[in-house]
Amino acid sequence: MCLFLKTFNSTVAVSDSLEYKTISVFLVLLVCCVGIVGNIMVVLVVFTTRHMRTPTNCYLVSLAIADLTVLVAAGLPNVSDSLTGTWIYGNAGCLGITYLQYLGINVSSCSITAFTVERYIAICHPIKAQTVCTVSRAKRIIAGVWIFTCIYCMLWFFLVGHDGHVQCGYRVKRELYLPIYLIDFTIFYVTPLLLAIVLYGLIARVFMSPAPSSDRKAQMHTGRFKLLRYRNYSAFLLLFTLQVTKMLAVVVILFALLWMPYRTLVLINSFVPTPYLDSWFLLFCRTCIYANSAINPVIYNAMSQKFRSAFRGLYSCQRLEGTHVSQQISGSVSSHIHVCISNNLQ
């Protein structure tokens, strides 16, 4: 059972038809297996490959761990619930699984917001990014996100419970938990998307703006970038920032689209006397949410040469050398220059 979709009526039972159970179990298991394997690979390649330890990738690790939490705490219990028709994890399982579901959901949203801000600073304020967009700062931000979200989600310990028979659901009146959903909708969905629209708009303006002035060029030569001539810098700036930014923009867009059915359902049902709780539509909403947690590693593999090479190296049980990755991406430019740029821009 996916607890966070059982929003308005804890007595609504999942369809007992064989057709529904078969489709539900197949879809959820397929998406969850792909997502669990993919997100574990993201965590492993960043931790085991030195050149992958960049500020942006730190946020992607946080996102991967949050997505793993959603898939394990929401997807897998949904399979057992579909097969047995009852809640088999008791009251402690009800509280713990619900808590982990919302923890994963909210950390995912915060991680997306964090790397969106990081991309904006890296592209629109490249000089400032050299001191602000660092791995150590990213780790501190991620720690703060997880601590805040862990505390915030403790509220769910007081809202749900096991009825002692077959269900894990809400034990408070609708008037009490509906405001919580609306607050979540605003903080963890609307706000990140509005911020992303504004910041990616500013990023797009930088890409479409004319070539930098001579003063701007001089600034770009300072610090670690003084190793490069401006022509080489411009080429690599375009290569790395376009690749990484487009990949992260796709992550944000899919987050918005795949969460929209569930968020819309909750919003509409908040204002109607009879909630819409069609089992097939709820299955569609659940599948979209699980797909959002499973699809990010696929995006990284499809849109990032560095992740694709790292995944390939992990699969073949080989550690990729920085010079190998550099040759694939930059061709004739030295690996020292490549590491210098990738550390600053990613």
From TrEMBL:
One of its GO terms (biological process) is phospholipase C-activating G protein-coupled receptor signaling pathway. The chain crosses the membrane at residues 23-47, 59-79, 141-160, 180-207, 235-260, 280-302. Keywords: G-protein coupled receptor, Membrane, Receptor, Transducer, Transmembrane, Transmembrane helix. InterPro entries: GPCR_Rhodpsn, GPCR_Rhodpsn_7TM, TRH_rcpt_1. It is found in: Membrane. It holds the Pfam family 7tm_1. Residues 38-300 form the G-protein coupled receptors family 1 profile domain. One of its GO terms (cellular component) is membrane. Belongs to the G-protein coupled receptor 1 family. Receptor for thyrotropin-releasing hormone (TRH). Upon ligand binding, this G-protein-coupled receptor triggers activation of the phosphatidylinositol (IP3)-calcium-protein kinase C (PKC) pathway. This is Thyrotropin-releasing hormone receptor. It comes from Cyprinodon variegatus (Sheepshead minnow). The lineage of its organism: Eukaryota, Metazoa, Chordata, Craniata, Vertebrata.
